[in-house]
Amino acid sequence: MQHKLSYVIFTDQERLQGFELRLSFNGRCNIDGYKQSTICYKDTSTTIQDIYNINSCNQSQNIQFNGRYVYISVENPNQGDKPLTLCEVEIFEKCGSNCVGGCDSSGNCNNCTSGYYGNKCDTPCPTNCNGGCIQNNGDCEACEKGSTGCNNGTCNRNDGSCIYGCISGKSGPTCTNDCSKNCIICSQNDNKKCTQCHDGYYGQSCKQPCNKTCQSQDNNPVCNITNGYCSIGCIKGYYDDVCNKNCSSNCFKKTCLQTNGSCTDGCVAGKIGDKCAEDCPNGTYGLRCSSTCGNCYNQTICHIVTGACDLELGCEAGFQGPTCKEVVEKADNSITIISAVTVTLVVVIVVVIGLVIIIRR
Predict the structure, then answer these.
(1) 113 burial type by CB count under 10 A (0-12 exposed, 13-18 middle, 19+ buried)
(2) Are strands 319-320 and 99-103 parallel, antiparallel or unpaired?
(3) How far is CA 43 from each of CA 61, 65, 234, 237, 301, rounded to the nearest angstrom?
(4) How far, in Å, are 19, 75, 155 from residue 48 at the CA level?
(5) Quick check: 315 pLDDT over 80?
(6) How many angstroms separate the CA atoms of 40 and 23, rounded?
(7) Whole-model pTM?
(8) 99: helix, strand or coil
(9) Which residues cross the membrane (predicted)?
(10) What is the pLDDT confidence band of residue 222, given thresholds at 50, 70 and 90?
(11) Which domain holds residue 291?
(12) Count of domains in the chain?
């Protein structure tokens, strides 16, 4: 066992000058044991001292400062035997290897090397302590980052509770519980109170599916977690908060504003208005009602898409064609008179011939 030796002298201090310290593991505390011992330390001081503190051997580098028996002697070659005067000999065990800053007379360390605790710093700190532990009881100064679901991997060293909340998908004091299905982030105290749902779901527990007519991300409809409103818009052909209303079939490309259903790309041919619910005014037809029509019989309305007049009623006098835009040309008067005279003569001739035939019979 390694030692620290202290010698205390109250009177006749000069009698101890030049003393030798011998150590031995075997033998007895007698002259034979003394002769078998190994010299470890020899006093070479030139002044007398009241207290000698010896911490290591000074006679050889190969001699260890430990042993079972300690022998102290003083030799005086010039004067023969010399009286040895000691008041007290204190032999201290060497401070533990994990002591920092020395130890007291009982071997209790002043401080411990990081990773150990106890009076003699001979007990390892608990596993996963971060930065060592408290010397007197072994409590961790802090814990290593864990893997149970704590945010930042940090938990209370006493009870394991997560100080900064849980990572996504975890709940509970120690973040060991899973959030409810379809829930990305939930309350640490209640795994059914979700603050973020997977795309496609909403509600406090993320159990309600978003309307399928909501615009999608990664093939899942997206809606507000609180009320289910479609937060990034509707698919083509639908509008309103939850996209459950159809855009007007008169909307061009079937697209309309989510807020009020107004047609965003205009109307199909023959329709006008924000929601394309109105027909073209009389006399107009086609896209944006930009083409004109008319001359339908008795001023009837032409077709709002093609501009054609009613087939059964036809056109006003003097007009012809599907849209009654073609003007009928008037015949020349002289031709009309000649035609009338010719017809009359033909009739007269036929009558005369008929009379002649009757008379001859």
Answers:
(1) middle
(2) unpaired
(3) 16, 15, 98, 106, 135
(4) 12, 16, 61
(5) yes
(6) 7
(7) 0.49
(8) strand
(9) 337-359
(10) very high
(11) 280-329
(12) 2
